Amino acid sequence: MLVGAGCVVDHLQTDVAPPREEVLARIEGAAGVVTMMSDRVDDPFLSAAGDTLRVVANFAVGYDNIDLAACSRRSVRATNTPGVLTEATADIAWALIMATARRVIEGDRKVREGRWQGWYPTELLGVELHGATLGIVGAGRIGTATARRALGFGMHILYTHPRANPELEQEQRAQRVPLDELIEAADIVSLHVPYRPENRHLIDAARLARMKPGALLINTARGPIIDERALLAALQSDRLRAGLDVYEHEPQLTPGLTELPNVVLLPHLGSGTVATRQRMSEMVANNILAVLRDEPPPHPIS
């Protein structure tokens, strides 16, 4: 273990997030802390660690769980793991697109439960992807990688982003449009924006109502970008289909969501490959070691 070569490591031997009280008790006196997306790094967290804390290394590319101002006030560096999970997350976006469009989970369940009685012409009809319009909300690294995978399907790409993406426009003739125009035109809307306060409920009841009947909504970004109660209502009306890897109040889901056949639900698997998680671990270790050596961390966010 890279960090273990030069540090005493206190490792929580669990795959389930421990109670916050336990985390705060364990980090007292630590020089560095590896945090997950479920860990709120705020003033109480930093106070519990004490004056010894020098670096918080987030095991994720997103860092909406970290109060950067609080870290700055205490001269604590914050780092993340950008870039390394781009391709794995784009793969999961496409896994959700395929499963949702072609009703893969419903078909698998039907076969397993012994309800399949043989082929017939109207069984589990899905959405044809070839030639469809894919809307990319947030054309950063992951959004661009997701759009690039659409090339083999002959898709038309719309995207929305604060800046133009010449790479996407040249490679796939993608067109940059306002969000509401994208929402109305796309057969598939795939979310790839970071979570910031202004992006909370970016996809709300009004925008869900603008989507085409039968359109797909895919979220591999952050749960609070979608108003989950509004999405539940839209799914219950059978207007839309959805594929979700993240949730508004993760790991809790809005009651009723799991009962619906027109939504595919994954347990936040975006970066979940052996190679990607290994690289993330190495990045976290290198970030911590750099700060403890009084060097700039490779991947700083503050």
Topology, please?
Blueprint: H1 20-26, E1 32-35, H2 43-49, E2 55-58, H3 68-73, E3 77-79, H4 86-101, H5 104-112, E4 133-137, H6 141-148, E5 156-160, H7 166-172, E6 175-176, H8 179-185, E7 188-191, H9 205-210, E8 216-219, H10 228-236, E9 241-244, E10 263-265, H11 274-292
Parallel strand pairs: 1-2, 2-3, 4-5, 4-7, 5-6, 7-8, 8-9, 9-10
| CATH architecture tag of the largest domain | 3-Layer(aba) Sandwich
The total beta strand count reads 10
The helix tally amounts to 11
**Class based on secondary structure composition and strand pairing:** alpha/beta
What is the domain total for the residues? 2
Per CATH, what is the topology of the largest domain?
Rossmann fold
Structure description:
It contains 11 helices and 10 strands. It is an alpha/beta fold and 302 residues long. It has 2 domains: 3-83 and 273-292, Rossmann fold; 86-265, Rossmann fold (3-Layer(aba) Sandwich). The mean pLDDT is 95. Helix 4 (86-101) crosses helix 6. The chain has helices at residues 20-26, 43-49, 68-73, 86-101, 104-112, 141-148, 166-172, 179-185, 205-210, 228-236, 274-292, and strands at 32-35, 55-58, 77-79, 133-137, 156-160, 175-176, 188-191, 216-219, 241-244, 263-265. The strands form 2 sheets. The protein has a 7-stranded parallel β-sheet, with helices on both faces. A 3-stranded parallel β-sheet has the order 1-2-3. It is globular, with a radius of gyration of 21 Å.
